[in-house]
Amino acid sequence: MKITPLMGENCVRISPPGQYKQQYYPLMGGGERYIERSLKMARILVIDDEQAVRLFLREILETDGHEVVDAPDGKAGLRLFSEEPADLTIIDIFMPEKEGLETIRELRREYPGVKIIAISGGGGIGNFDFLHMAKRFGALRTIAKPFEKKEMLDAVQEALG
Questions:
Q1: What tens digit of pLDDT does each residue of 110-128 get?
Q2: For the chain, which domains are there?
Q3: What ranges in the chain are assigned the alpha helix state H?
Q4: Is the dihedral of CA 147, 94, 100, 66 positive or negative?
Q5: 41 and 23 in contact (C-beta within 8 Å)?
Q6: How far apart are CA 100 and CA 73, in angstroms?
Q7: How confident is the model over 133-150, as pLDDT tens digits?
Q8: pTM, entire model
């Protein structure tokens, strides 16, 4: 982490390596003194066949300072991940082309350290709980649709650790 006094300013730039968004916080005692704090942004891949869900997730995650890429199905998501891996992947369970459980299994097989949050509005059929199965396949967290912004942001923060 690099700490740089800014000339002629009553603030300090704190710069760890990587991609960042800048935030300014008042120093103790208030007044005109600030600290410019750089927060590392995560690259998050959202894989969901519902465009409205992808747009909602993009909005809340980008507002929180993350870079977001998205795909409409597991096949496209795997291609995007192989081209440029993400720090976190959010995967819907029910999708065309390649459904979520299959996508989770393939990602975990090819990239064992991948961090995954599984989401679904389908829940379960009979005694088969798809979100529980996603956890068994390697998802760190599961969230049922519909979900609240805070619930997703808390899960993202937890998954990124």
A1: 999 999 999 998 755 554 5
A2: 2-40 (no CATH), 43-160 (3.40.50.2300)
A3: 51-63, 74-83, 100-110, 130-137, 149-160
A4: negative
A5: no
A6: 8
A7: 999 999 999 999 999 999
A8: 0.75
